Amino acid sequence: MTSPSPRLSGPAGEVIVDWYATAARDLPWRTPGVDPWAVLVSEVMLQQTPVARVEPVWRAWMDRWPTPAALAATPPGEVIRAWGKLGYPRRALRLREAAIAVTERHGGAVPDDVAALQALPGVGTYTARAVACFGHGQRQPVVDTNVRRVVARLVHGRAEAAPARASDLADISALAPRDDARAVRFSVAVMELGALVCVARTPRCGACPVRDLCAWRLAGYPAHEGPARRVQTFTGTDRQVRGRLLDVLRAAEQPVDAAALEPAWDDAAQRARCLDSLLTDGLVEQTSDGLFTLPT
DNA sequence: AAATCGTGGGC
DNA sequence: TGCCCAAGATT
Predict the structure, then answer these.
(1) From the alpha carbon of A160, which nucleotide's C1' atom is closest?
(2) Catalytic residue list contains A104
(3) A238-293: same fold as A28-135?
(4) For A144-176, what is each residue's pLDDT tens digit?
(5) Where is average pLDDT lowest: A7-11, A27-31, A194-198, A262-266?
(6) CA dist A198 to A148, A210, A218, Å?
(7) Residues β-bridged to residue A229
(8) In principle, which of A135, A228, A237, A286 could form an S-S bond with A39, CB 3.0–4.6 Å?
(9) What confidence tens digit (pLDDT) does each residue in A271-281 have?
(10) Options 1.20.58.2190, 1.10.1670.10, 3.30.565.10, 3.40.1390.20; CATH of A6-19+140-218
(11) Hey, what CATH class is A28-135 in?
(12) Which residues pair with A293 in a beta bridge?
């Protein structure tokens, strides 16, 4: 267990909340009165996808499906189309499945219990707490990659975020303000600090509200020790091929034959393997006459 | 538990 | 240009 540092445990959280009041971005899912469903949609879209790309899709999505029941009643193919090019389209499928679960098991209301939230498809440890906190106004520690990076630097004096651990929740809870309403804002505020100031590549320490409390700065900005985390390749991978195939099917008005998918990728074996994996994932469906389409 | 799963913008 | 990175979840 980490004991809260006296240097940090009083002031840092309060300072970060005050900074947020002046520096926060005006994002639509932060509008006062947005319901937990709107927050859930935003959180799933934001998993590994930048804010700028999410914003227009989120607006269109909420116009079209303002409630879980509305999304639950929609065929998966339409949902995949509306997801557009946000990436990782299995998230669209899972969000629809979550909407169905909410409708069938929770009377159409997004649950406020972290465990019930985490039981929903596509909702993991981060998203469950984010919805409980930002959507339901609960005091909850919320830990994403931004928060892990801020804690690594501010608290532990290290340059880079450690991989997720159970102790992350205690680390961030130790910094949270006592007042519940401020603690709720603290959870967004730390994420915002990590997104705008304490960024991965070139941290803007000159603009940081807690630079005088920062263990990393006080230690002289030591470089990261140990192996650099390997970045995922993309070009030529199945991920790229799946994306190409889905791109063709999203654009198609009607089911297409195998020949129509050939331009998506030259290597026939890889193309076939990826098409098969898309079928397995339920992102593509084959009609009775052998044509391919987004699932109906 | 390491690998897999899209996409595009910034440097 | 090519690499790095972005509010993770799942198996």
Answers:
(1) C5
(2) no
(3) no
(4) 999 999 999 999 999 999 888 989 999 999 999
(5) A7-11
(6) 11, 10, 15
(7) none
(8) A135
(9) 999 999 999 99
(10) 1.10.1670.10
(11) mainly alpha
(12) A285
Sorted by where each begins, the domain ranges of chain A are 6-19+140-218, 28-135, 238-293
Bases of chain C with protein Cβ within 7 A? 3-10
Footprint of strand B on the protein (CB under 7 A): A 48-50, 52-53, 85-90, 201-202, 232, 234, 237-240, 242-244, 246-247, 277
Q: Is the CB of A144 under 7 A from strand C?
A: yes
Per-residue flag: A140 CB under 7 A of strand C = no
Q: What is the DSSP string of A135-190?
A: IT--------HHHHHHHHHHTT--SSPPPP-THHHHHHHTTS-SSHHHHHHHHHHH
Q: How far is the CA of A104 from the C1' of B11 (A)?
A: 48
pLDDT band at A1 (very low <50, low <70, confident <90, very high): very low
3-state secondary structure of A114: helix
Q: What per-residue confidence (pLDDT) applies to A7?
A: 67
pLDDT in tens, A80-106: 999 999 999 999 999 999 999 999 999
In whole angstroms, give the CA distance from residue A75 to residue A92. Answer: 11
Question: Which residue among A43, A160, A253, A285 is the active-site one?
Answer: A43
Alpha-carbon torsion (A25, A99, A112, A3), positive or negative: negative
Q: The dihedral of CA A268, A270, A276, A281: what is its sign?
A: negative
B9 C1': nearest CA residue = A50
| Architecture of domain A238-293 in this structure | Orthogonal Bundle (1.10)
Answer whether any strand C atom is within 7 A of the Cβ of A240: no
Q: Which nucleotide is nearest to A87 (CA to C1')?
A: B6
For chain A, helix (H) and strand (E) counts, in that order, are 16, 2
